[in-house]
Amino acid sequence: MKLTVVYPARAHSAYKIAAEKFSEFAMRVFGVSSMLITDEEFTGANDGDITVLIGHDGENDIAAELYLSKKTDSPGIRYCTDDYCIRSVTDGKNKYLWLAGGRPRSTIYAVYRYFELFCSCHWFWDGDRVSSIEQMPFDNIDISESPRFDYRGLRYFAHRSLHRFQAEHWSFEDWKHEIDWMLKKRLNIFMMRMGMDDVWQKAFPELVSYPEYDMPLAEAGDGYDDRNLFWSLEYRGELRKKILLYAFERDLMHPEDCGTMSHWYSRTPCEFLDKEKPELLPQATKDYSEPTGRVFDIRQKRNFDYYARLTDTHVKEYGKGEIFHTIGLGERRYSNDPEENKRMKLYVYRKICSHIKERYPNAPLFIASWDLWYSFKEEEVRSLVSELDPSQSLIFDYTSDTVKENNFTKWGIVNKFPWIFGIFSAFEPNSEIRGFYKYINERIKIAKEDPMCRGLVLWPELSHGDPFAIEYLVNNAWEKETLSIAEQTDRYCMARYNTDISKEMMRLWRDFMPIVELESWSMDSKYPESMCGDLFVRPLGKIDFSNKNADAYRSRASLIFEQRDVALSILKRLSTLSCSDEMTKRDFYDIARTVVSRFTNGAILYVESLYTQRADVDKLERAMTKAVNMLECLTDILSSHVDYSMLSTLSLLQKTETTNPNFETTLKHNAESWYCRSYIYENAEYLYLPELKNLFGQMLLSVREDKECNAEAINTLNEISLKEYYDTPLSKMKRRNVSLYDALVKSAETIKSLELI
Prior knowledge:
- By secondary structure, the protein is an alpha/beta fold.
- The chain is built from 24 helices and 16 strands.
């Protein structure tokens, strides 16, 4: 069989890309080579062969000829939208497969969707499942699909630690793979909120110079705020330009940050402050009190113009100016007087909205919800919404899955004002599989039934942390019906795993979901915040040494321990299943670390409940030993996969581009800070375990001697552990020689040995 792929000659670059992708997968799936030509070069179909037409009839002249000559009907799509049609057309002996998208990117969607629907191919962030079939499907194909939501996308954030989870570490090849995957999943928008790169240098070249990549940045702080460079800003700027150009060539959208952009990951360069001396708004709290993190006083025109110049420069150098995004005065408190604070925050939104409307009149403005959820009252959000122009602004709510009373259902937007539903896969330490999916499922039905809800986004603080969350997003972004969580996990398993284990993985995931739902970024308020989620933060000594929360500690631990039999079954089944490829292996690790982390958390909570009640010392010591054993099991799991290795991450950075020789220290600063502790092998081995032992040792001593726990002694011991952590190069941090199988067996034995409450 000969295959000719015809794309529009005088059209967007995405049409040619769609043709190239069809040709690529035709070879991989059917073993058939293709000839790519434009509609201007096409001289006619060959009898019996298939001609693939790329683009709707308004773009592809051959498709137009078929339509105008009544050989086929209209593709039944809304033009200039993300709709698409896949149709087989027969004209005598001539055969045409027509892939008609309403706009350039949706034509690419149609290509991938053809191979997904008719050739059993499936797409995942970490790889493809591509089938091999003998004959190209053609007969009786006629489908058209429309997305439920106009905006469907992902946000990439500025934290650093591990390559898999942190987009700032990615090379251009990584980003190309990611963008191609977005198109395979029919997404259309993404946000690179990973710092300013060299926008300051391009906007104010007379004021701000390029820093040396291997020298300390004047703006760098401590912990996650240590933004010392790993690659030069010159290279970062080139990389950003290439990434966005690659995305725009494929007709994807990228919002431009605007307004009061000052934040910890987008600080004002000291050079600019020293030379220009912009006036700064008051900050009533310690957070963001440094001049580099303070917001300019935009009541003065020149100060607002500085921000406007940054945005305009990004549009000119990198972007397109078709969508804008603002955080307002995110996380700031202008005044301790609530009324003054409210008025300033509302004023800032008015100022930003007015500027964007005047400067970019046809561009929508996404108003980020974090500050609305974080520091506004319900009535204050309603007041803001009442002032906004619904033809310009959308409430970009990425906290839609919160359990907090202040949420989108109280803001006066449902059925009234344009908004976007967002799933907040956070916080930074929480990179396992988590979330109240049953709760999210009910909330997302509200969004699907509301014609004013225009989008569905996933807003993680780290990327690729929860593989199911990604699939949940992309499926619900298109489907008007909402399947049960069990049905959605079944679909995930059938697509992702080989047929020999897919049915067993379906059963396993159904059992696994109650363990997943034990933790989420927004938790039941009856549990103190220190109990929930941030597993690796607790050993820092954040334990409440009083007995006021003893019942809550016990209740929370009991809730986890109720899942013990299920957890044992999951670990046992994982240890007996065939792990035939890297994608399946990665899921085994993700499931295992999630299960083991839940029981490590439960074991620590149980220790805390016993301690606050001054339980029998032998019983307390046994519980402490079990908790340490649980963290050892988790460390075993993390030790044997490169996804959790900082050394592997550093090596990938160095292979991509010349890297700051001092960056290892900054990487440790970022990864071990209180907010960013996650599933990192080097941290678990050289920090989390020593800190937990330090804490338990002092707690046990206080019980034996019947005195208060010596917090100062804990801090002193932790400082010693931290010094050793920094003094030991990543290359000298020995890896545990433990297989996943051995780690699974050991974890099951340890969980089985835990004392029930």
